[in-house]
Structure formats: structure tokens, C-alpha cells
Task: structure prediction
Amino acid sequence: MALFSKQNREALLTPLNQNNPIAVQVLGICSSLAVTSQLKPAIVMGLAVTIITAFSNVIISAIRKTIPMRIRIIVQLVVVAALVTIVSQILKAYSYDVSVQLSVYVGLIITNCILMGRLEAFAMQNSPWPSFLDGIGNGLGYAFILVLVGAVREFLGRGSLLGFQIIPQGAYDAGYFNNGMMTMPAMALILLGCVIWVHRAYFYKEEK
Amino acid sequence: MEHIISLFFRSIFVDNMIFAFFLGMCSFLAVSKNVKTSLGLGLAVTFVLLVTVPVDYLLQTKVLGPDCLIQGVDLSYLSFILFIAVIAGIVQLVEMVVEKYSPSLYSALGIFLPLIAVNCAIMGASLFMQQRINLDPSNTQYIGNVWDSIAYAFGSGLGWTLAIVLMGAIREKMQYCDVPKPLRGLGITFITVGLMALAMMCFSGLKI
Result:
């Protein structure tokens, strides 16, 4: 029972690239788009989803033998909803401005398909420790795409990263403009489309 | 009356679930392969929205809000768990009623009905409704009574249906297009939705 046997390493690492939850499994698109107009909410959202995925995976896999099959969806939803409530209260207490920025999308983690997808596909069949690693891996894979899209949108849309101005004032004086389009919802979709394009182009080549 | 009409049209065109808030993206992407199934799912979502949002509104104002059950106690932190339980329960109920009284509709909707429970559009609409109760009454997005919440739910549902039917129609045509291989499927769908969202932005100045 090695803690990091080959299977466990796979559970942790494949969701980061080959089996990325957003680009390949197409899970959890809803919340990924709305929170990425700036980098900071994207990071917070990524972390929140990672933590919730990991712990709901552990809890469900610990009680998986006692859950009746017919009502398992409701049991899963309640466990996830309880965890999301805790995270949302913590966010409100310690970083109120971010929780205002994320608004309803914290609550929407409950219906995030990554959670339900991983609970159904992994935690219901595996013991707690691999499930924990699978949750962390999938959460980080999700966070990675979020941070990527968030960084591009904030840099091009506002000329800053994490709120710090990156593009110097001189550039604006010389006629550089922020691309206001980037802060609009539509560009999130188009950017994510491009991310998926690059991702698939890269990994299809490896498969051949 | 005026407020209800404006709320209704705003939630179809301006605050569109898909194009402005990315809610219900997962099933939107998975199901919008042709017009017929898109229409079926859209109507099912509209129906569930019409039932759940008013119920959640009453729960929020009569049970969860500050000073409702016990003087000086604000239970709104329980809203995530309660809302998701209501949604799952009502979806189950709707499924049973439809199965009993209209087997033809039941077989037409098929797997989509139970899946609606984890559709972010439903949970998202309830959470947005919860936010909008606290708005200023002069705001066009304000929800002040049950009729407002019904108008909001109906408008959002129709907006979602509009989006998924349009997408289904475009994807039917797109099968004959020569799309670069890695972009095929998910990637091009995202970019199309992005362009549609750009087009929908022309409604944002809509005043009724």
C-alpha cells in the first residue's frame, strides 16, 4: 500500500493534461467562463473547486457502500451542498470583495459537472485515498485552464495582472489601448475555444 | 404590470442565461446536436424553472430570510442545501407526474428530465432570484413578488430554449463544413457560441 503507487500518481497527474476536465472531459464549463474576466477570482474559484472536489470525493468514497443506489444523486448533492456552504461562508468572512465578485458562481459549484462527474465516475468505485488524489488532480486541471484564460483576459482587457498594472503608462501615451472586448462574456467563450484547439492539436499529435 | 413585462423580455434577450451568464452550458453543449432534441430539452428546462423559482422565492422570503421563522435569526446560509433539495425533489416529482399522465411526452424527453436536476441554469436562476430580492425596487431586475419571480423564470427558460434551438440549427448545418481537425466538435462550438453572444450583445440597450 504505497501512498504514491503508479495508479495513484496517474489519478493525480492525468487530469492535469491528457485528461483535463475542461478541455477533454467537457465538465464544469458553466462556472469556468463567468469568473475569468480577472485573474484573482479565477484563482480563488480554482482553489475552491479543488478543495470541494477533493473532500466530496473522500466523503462519498468513504460512505459509498452504505449509499442506496436509487437515491445516490441526492446524497451526493447534499454532501456537495454542505461543503459549498462552508466554503462560501469562509470566503465571505475572510475575503468579502472576492466573494462579491464571484457572486452566485460560488453557489453554482454545487451543480458544477466536475463534482458530479468525478463522484459518479471515480469516488463511487474507489477507496478514499485515490479518490482524494483524483479530486485534487481534477480540481487543479480545472484551475489551470481558469488561470490561463483569466490571465489572458485581464492582461489584454485591463493591462494588469492580479490588479497590478503591467503595461506601463508610456505605452498608453504612445497610443496603446486596452481591448475592452476581452472583459466581455463572449470573449471567454472564444478564448476557451482556442485553448481547446491548441490542447487537442498538441495531444492528437502525440497519440499518432 | 409594466415591470413584469420588462422583466420578462429582459431575461430573454439581455440577461440571457447562456450568452450573458453561461448557465447550463454543460447540457447546452452536450444536447444541441439537432433542433428536435434541443427544443425538447429547452421546454423541459423552462417548465422546471417555472415551478422551482417561485417555490424557492417563497422559501427565501417566508422561511430563510432574516426574522422569518425566529426573530433575529437569518437562515439564508442554508439556502444552497434547501434550494438544491427543492430542485431535486421537484424534478423527481415532475418526472413521476409526466410518466403517469403523459407517457408519450415522457419517452420524448427521456434521459433529459432527471439530468435537469444538475443543470446549472435552474440553480443559477434561483440564486440570481435570491440576489435580486435585495435590489432597489426601481431597478428593472428587481423581483418583489411571486408574479415577478414567475415572469423571470419563464423569460429565462424561453431565453435558454431560444439559445439551444439556435445552436442546434447551426450545428446541423455545420456538419457539412470543413473545420480544421483539432477544432472540430467542442472547439468550434465554443467559438460559435462566442460569436452568437457577441451578436446578442446588441440587445443590451433594450428598453421597454
